[in-house]
Amino acid sequence: MKLKLPIALITLLLGIGTIASGCSSTQPTSSSAESKTNTSTNETLDITVSIEPQKYFVEKIGGKNVSVNVMVPAGTEPHAYEPKPQQLRKISEAEAYIIIGSDTFEDAWMNRIKSANSSLLIVDSGKGIERIKMVAHHHHHEEEEEKATKESEEQGLDPHIWLAPSLVKKQAQNIYQGLVQLDPDRKEEYKQNLDSFLAEIDRTDREIRKNLAGVTNRKFIVFHPAWGYFSREYNLEQIPIEVEGTEPSAAELKELIEEAKEEKIQVIFVEPQFSTKSAQSIAQEINARVVPINPLAANWSENLLKVSETFAKELSELDSSKVKVLIVLSFPHI
Questions:
Q1: What's 158-196 look like in SS3?
Q2: CATH class held by domain 214-327
């Protein structure tokens, strides 16, 4: 009996020890497995971008390997947008922020973004792209507007590079380089995706040129000159009314209506991100149509094709010797 009791006690104690050991090791084992998963080749890259078209570009190149967060929600004006606290918290966990770059609304966010994540990789998708100046309108008041034009030209460069396919090809290359820097093991996969996307851009470009081939009236008047790169790409000419892009005052609205009547304008294009109040007022006064177009649509390729079809239809229906088109784009300060 003296031998049995110690053996029983030892067996019981060993059993308890095994159970306790098993319980205490459960959490570390799970944590270790999770840690291994997070550092494996199956990990997705957490990427932040400013606007929806950039998300399209990153997903085309990154494929299933990227999770893309957009700072400016759909239907929101970029310049007036303030990042939410939850967005800054999300950025603190991101690997990279891919920017449009060069004198954009992003500049106002950068200090807060870098403070939220000091190790964040900033990828400039516009690197190597030569920017054009924002074009200023020449109003009827010569002396005042010459001064305003000079000030506008000094304000900065046109950021709307994503509206020209040839420039998007350069953006795609920069995005590819950024993803490879973050994830060199998948370089070949990203290169295949890049090549596929470049081919898509070329197809989109050919379709746009085909859509605009028969357009004889290649001038249009714009409220804010967001389509400068697009116009340069396809031999169009935008004639801006306002660079700042704010809602016009009563006096400015009256002048716009007079100019629209003088130019025999029949179409006003509007953006979904902004109020159409001024456009509707002008349209009512001059008996014009209001037609929406969107420079920030999520599906970049489909959207540019749609815009080119709209341009072709509206410009082709007008008498090129008598009529221009007014586009109220209102992309304030960017």
A1: CCCHHHCHHHHHHHHHHHHHHHHHHCHHHHHHHHHHHHH
A2: alpha beta
